[in-house]
Amino acid sequence: MKINELKISYKVRCHSELSPEEQALLQAATEAAHKAYAPYSKFRVGAAVLLGNGEILSGCNQENAAFPSGLCAERVTVFYANAKYPDVAVDTLLITVLDENDNYRGEPVPPCGACRQVLSETETRQGKPMRILLVGKSKVYEFSSVSDLLPFIFSGNELL
Ligand code: THU
Fold it and tell me: Can 21 be counted among the known catalytic residues?
């Protein structure tokens, strides 16, 4: 028997270390989180992407009384970006969550598994890494690639 080990790494930063560009991304995600449609969970998620053309797009979670019909903020945002600019890469995706007092939620919140699957295929499709920033109350986690969040992806190569 052989045991393989995978090593992933991520940076732990703080708000004051965000560059002006990253702050703009955080502002866009925060404004989006305020617009979340989350009457059932009250969990308001905002996401923003910095595209290869310099544009910032944002989105938030959209819930539905038929629960599985809703969609997470990350997929709303990345699908929007891919629909608007199919040939432009998503350089950075920033995700944040607001608490009931409109403050950033304590710990940075990582994307769910289904979102990671979508982010991973977007990264493969664009042929360059997508940087992920998860912003909590005081800490910011930075992953340099989706593959650090989801190693061992089902890539779809098996279908070809
Ligand atoms: N949600 C997101 O928007 N992103 C995630 O990565 C995790 C969960 C949303 C979905 C649902 O509207 C609410 O948060 C509670 O799960």
Answer: no
